[in-house]
Write a structure and sequence with these properties.
By secondary structure, this protein is α/β, with parallel strands linked by helices. Helices cover 29% and strands 24% of the residues. The protein is built from ten helices and 18 strands. The strands form three sheets. The protein has a seven-stranded mixed beta sheet with strand order 9-10-8-7-6-12-11, sandwiched between helices. A six-stranded parallel beta sheet has the order 15-14-13-16-17-18, with helices on both faces. α6 packs parallel to α7. The protein is elongated. It starts with a helix and ends in a 29-residue tail after the last helix. 41% of the residues are buried. The C terminus is likely disordered.
Length: 399
């Protein structure tokens, strides 16, 4: 729902009923990702998209009907070889779409989620999409590291793994705690997907089966570019286009200036390894080292390759990269740690210009993020759209 957050927030604040259709499952090749949404208000105004056009008309009608009868609907759209004129996806994939009528005065959880999303604050929006009829359509708002759940009518409180949570209602103590823990784990990693639980919690004999869709809304991932050179300026532009919060860092104040990098979110003058020691990173952070200067690169990469971040790449000729690897070993890195370094940085696109080089770096970051091969799609038989991984709930996950 990220793309239509402002429209939904406006409708919700005005007390205007609407129906929102969200992609909750994808199989095969499909045009939109999990969480893609189409919404229709009571006047018939539509915003967003769930399929890029293939099934928009049918989903629009389901939204209108859902507003009229007030019940949520879970619908599957696929491709039919038997009927070329049937509503479906021409790409051959399959979408599962959940249509939820929203009456703002009854949905405090959605109100909280939309407010947080509009403010850019991380939050998870949880919705029951299948299960007992009295639970389907229930919504839950979960903030990471914040003791608040909003679900149903006011008047209840629960605790999650000893952590007190205030809640506006409860379905069952077991279900509330389990779903909240999943949601907090998923919003911490930026994941979106479905989980299967029971009305009384997880495991066998835990009541009737319930399917819950958890949609994470998180702050933009960070791209840290070390080395204030021309290639960095081009990579800043590509990084912003991909949705990263981009920082350029260089120890040389004559090069690390706002004038040279006007599109960067931050321009920092500091020794790279010292800045990396103090700045915020997470599992989505990517690091691009463009200095190819040992006095900067080696201490920086020793730090970077031991952090739980998404990607570390370093620029340089093959000779420079080989020499750098030797220096990293001398600095104490293991071969396994060095193997996580993408060097020379980028995919083999034959890039020559700064812009082409930035494109090759960004392409490798995208491939690493989604598990792509980096090869031409015409030469591989893998899925075009790789399925996103939903992290399992494990002991030790913040709750």
């Amino acid at each position: 729902m990220r793309d239509i957050t402002e429209d939904l927030h406006t409708w919700h604040a005005a007390g205007k009923p609407y129906a929102v259709a969200s992609v909750v499952a994808v199989k095969g090749s499909a045009p939109r990702e999990l969480g893609a949404a189409l919404a229709v208000d009571a006047e018939g105004t539509a915003v967003g998209s769930v399929s890029g056009g293939c099934v928009e008309g049918a989903v629009y009608e389901l939204c209108v009907e859902s507003l009229q009868h007030g019940r949520p609907v879970l619908e599957t759209f696929g491709y039919s070889d038997d009927d070329a004129f049937a509503v479906g996806l021409t790409c051959g994939g399959e979408l599962e779409v959940f249509i939820q009528p929203v009456f703002p005065e009854r949905e405090p959880a959605i109100d909280v989620a939309l407010s947080a999303m509009s403010a850019g604050d991380p939050i998870a929006l949880v919705r029951v999409i299948a299960g007992p009829s009295d639970l389907v359509g229930r919504s839950l708002a979960v903030r990471p590291r914040a003791p608040e759940i909003l679900w149903g009518p006011p008047g209840a409180s629960i605790a999650v793994d000893g952590d007190p949570w205030s809640a506006t209602g409860t379905i069952s103590p077991g279900l509330d705690r389990v779903v909240a823990r999943h949601a907090r784990a998923m919003v911490e990693s930026g994941a979106t997907g479905t989980i299967a639980v029971g009305t009384e919690g997880e495991g066998q004999d835990c009541g009737e089966p319930v399917t819950v869709f958890i949609e994470s809304f998180v702050t933009a991932p960070r791209m840290l570019i070390f080395g204030a050179i021309d290639f960095a300026a081009a990579l800043v532009r590509v990084g912003k286009y991909l949705g990263y919060q981009v920082t350029v860092c260089d120890a040389r104040p004559v090069f690390a200036t706002r004038r040279r990098f006007p599109e960067a979110d931050d321009v920092v003058v500091a020794w790279p390894h010292r800045y990396l020691e103090t700045t915020r990173v997470d599992a989505r952070t990517v690091v691009a080292v463009l200095t190819h200067d040992a006095k900067f690169d080696v201490p920086l990469l020793v730090k970077a390759l031991r952090l739980p971040i998404a990607y570390v790449g370093a620029m340089g000729s093959r000779r420079t990269c080989a020499q750098r690897a030797d220096r990293l070993r001398e600095a104490g890195l293991s071969d396994a740690e060095i193997a996580n370094l993408h060097a020379p940085i980028g995919l083999d696109l034959g890039a020559r210009t700064s812009e082409e080089t930035a494109l090759s770096i960004a392409a490798e970051i995208v491939a690493a993020r989604h598990g792509g091969t980096g090869r031409s799609l015409a030469d591989v038989n893998t899925a075009i759209h790789h399925a996103p991984a939903v992290p399992p709930l494990e002991s030790g996950v913040p709750a």
